[in-house]
Design a protein that fits this description.
Layout lengths: L27 H8 L7 H6 L1 E3 L5 E3 L34 E3 L2 E8 L4 E7 L1
Antiparallel strand pairs: 1-2, 3-4, 4-5
């Protein structure tokens, strides 16, 4: 099983293929979304992995051509509420060290990550 999961131990799969596969058809994230009023069969598919185009047509996040559009789900209910946007850093901090600009993206007790761009 660890080989199939790239060496990770699987505790919960919220990868969007529910309920149409052999995985748990009702993951905890879908339960959470339903409890917040997103009451459809697969709220991940219709809210967290979907967007709307200019005329309000629902578009699937599985199609890369819609990846530049925001998901329908409000940020506070997103799978990734603490992701730092590409043009932002933590606390608006950045360092320019000899022309290389570093912007911190994530920090915890166990890790720190940043994005670096050469100018």
């Amino acid at each position: 099983m660890r080989i199939a999961q790239c060496g990770f131990d699987t505790y919960e799969r919220d990868d969007g293929i529910h309920p149409y596969s052999g995985h748990d058809p009702d993951p905890a994230y879908n339960d959470y979304l339903r409890s917040q009023g997103f009451g459809v069969d697969n709220p991940w598919e219709e809210w967290a992995n979907a967007t709307e185009d200019e005329d309000g047509t629902l578009r699937s996040g599985w199609f890369l051509k819609y990846s530049n559009r925001p998901a329908r789900i409000p940020d506070e209910h997103s799978e990734t509420p603490d992701i730092t946007r590409k043009n932002q850093s933590l606390d608006s901090v950045s360092w320019n060290i000899l022309g290389q600009v570093y912007t911190p993206k994530q920090m915890s007790d166990d890790s720190f990550s940043w994005h670096a761009v050469s100018h």
